[in-house]
Amino acid sequence: MTVALFIPCYIDQFYPKAGIATLELLEKYGCTVVFPREQTCCGQPLGNSGMEKEARPIYEHFVETFKSFDYVVCPSGSCVYQIRHHYEALEQTPDVVALRENTYELADFLVNVLGVTEVNASFPHRVGIHNSCHGLRGLRLGQGSERVGEAFSHYKYLLGMVDGIELVTLERSDECCGFGGTFAVNQPELSTKMGRDRIADHLAHDSEVITSGDMSCLMHMEGLIRREGKPLRVMHVAEILNSQKV
């Protein structure tokens, strides 16, 4: 199985360790991973800002770059949601249809394509999971509280197999952190209040680490954590799943 690794802009620029952990994790599970150097943004910032026409060349470049691979895996639910749902703006050629179907968020790929049943990692810390809106409600990586049905979470399933980890139960496990891309720019006061609320929930339950499959959410909360001196740190799920076993 050949997997193309798509790394979002903010991971590339600010959190490369999350990208490296994703690469190493996929290789541990037997994937041949290719990193196309021609890759750029998926077009999400423009799409979220209502500039669909301006985003089309970015969409088309993404399709051309990744169309020849069996799977495309990305450590970001929001970027994968953009590709799966917003690339409907393109002509639905066989290449576009196949790319939309075969692009996966990392945890989704590990659970539903690779069928992972064992995680060889150790992380002896109290960890709170942040469910991003795109991942939880857009990609159905877990069961939102507004839905009726059996509860599930790809993140809980995978992290629950890590030695020594203690997953923290939060009061509002599926509440938005307030980032929302350009929302944080256009509504900074509201965005900040939502971020502080999420951090307070983790602190109230003695989390040491906040983890998520979306580094953009973690980046937003980390900014507040650092500025306000809170005793928390953030890590992408891939970094925990790839941690060395003691």
What does this structure look like?
Residues 3-84, 127-221 form the Cysteine-rich domain. This is L-lactate dehydrogenase complex protein LldE. It is a single chain. The chain is α/β, with parallel strands linked by helices and 246 residues long. The protein folds into two domains: 2-112, no CATH class; 126-241, Rossmann fold (3-Layer(aba) Sandwich). Helices cover 48% and strands 11% of the residues. It has 13 helices and eight strands. The strands form two sheets. The protein has a four-stranded parallel beta sheet, with helices on both faces. α12 (215-228) links the parallel β7 and β8 (233-236). α11 crosses α12. The model has no long low-confidence stretch (mean pLDDT 95).
Write the layout of secondary structure elements.
Elements: E1 2-5, H1 9-14, H2 16-28, E2 32-34, H3 44-48, H4 52-66, E3 71-74, H5 77-86, H6 94-102, E4 103-105, H7 106-112, E5 126-129, H8 133-138, H9 154-159, E6 166-167, H10 183-186, H11 188-204, E7 209-212, H12 215-228, E8 233-236, H13 237-241
Parallel strand pairs: 1-2, 1-3, 3-4, 5-6, 5-7, 7-8
Helix pairs in contact: 11-12
Protein name: L-lactate dehydrogenase complex protein LldE
Organism: Neolewinella antarctica
Pfam families: CCG
CATH architecture of the largest domain: 3-Layer(aba) Sandwich
Q: Figure out the total of helices.
A: 13
Largest sheet: 4 strands, parallel
Give the oligomer, counting copies of the same chain as homo and different chains as hetero: single chain
| Uncertain spans | none
Proportion of strand residues: 5-15%
What is the strand tally? Answer: 8
Q: What spatial order of strands do you see in the largest sheet?
A: 2-1-3-4
Mean pLDDT: 95
Instruction: Name the structural class.
Output: alpha/beta
Bulk shape: globular
Portion in helices: 40-55%
Distance between the termini: 30 Å
Order of helices and strands: EHHEHHEHHEHEHHEHHEHEH
Pfam families: CCG
Protein name: L-lactate dehydrogenase complex protein LldE
Domain Cysteine-rich: 3-84, 127-221
